[in-house]
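Data deposition worksheet. Section B asks for the primary sequence of the deposited chain exactly as it was used as input, without tags or linkers unless they were present during the calculation. Section C holds the resulting structure in token form. Section D is free text for depositor observations; keep each observation to a single sentence. Incomplete worksheets are returned to the depositor.
Section A, Depositor: J.P.
Section B:
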Amino acid sequence: MRFEELDIETLKHIGTEETNAQARALAQGRRVQNLYRLPNRLLGTIRDEETFQVEVKIEDDQLSYECSCPQVEGGEVCSHVLALLWAWVEEPGRFLNQTELKDHLKKYSKKELVDIILNLSERVPNVRGILKEEDQGLEDILESIDRVMEETSGDSPALADAENKLRQAQVRADRLAQSGYLAEARSIYFYLLDNILSLEERLQKFFSPELKKELFEEYCQFIHEDRQLEKELVQQEIEQLESRSPTFRSDLDLAEIKRELNLSG
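Section C:
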């Protein structure tokens, strides 16, 4: 199942008639806002009697969801989850697409991006909080990854939350790279990849392929850019990744990077 395959008839079978009626009223009343589309997720804010944050994910052909309302805690599909899906089916163009956003931002100059961020910091408190965060060093970032791995269980919402937290570590690694610390950034990317593969083996569930692909591509990029590359250390990292189950590392072309670097094994 993909989000593009969802239609009105499918939604009618996901929830009860009453819940669908409530959901459609929310969607058509423009109570579904801040809509965001990622490759395998939909995010939105539902303004009902209270404001609720909703996330819907499709993974392994299965639909999973999170909502901050009490109804979801009882295992029911609430009207807020369905409202987000109704908004997607009826008006997919209202969703900000992450891939399109990335391509759009590439058109801006550095100065224009700085102006955009400053404008956001004036309007959005969460942005100010992010910008105020102190830069973390290598050990702090690795410890944050360890905590995510320890806290993650096998249910889909937990995996989605873990993925978001790991992407925060990825952002911090990128900051190190931008400051010239390529070896440290590469180490963090390796640590992310290795821990993700380890957790997938333990839980027998997959993180999104997009995340692993992105991490591996950046890991390889740091290898190519580092003029003081320690090949022996890189070989150890690749051997560690090769030791993981082929089922979960099949998308990582480790043989190619070994050939490029003339590594043994």
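Section D:
The first helix runs from residue 8 to 14.
The first strand starts at residue 32 and ends at 38.
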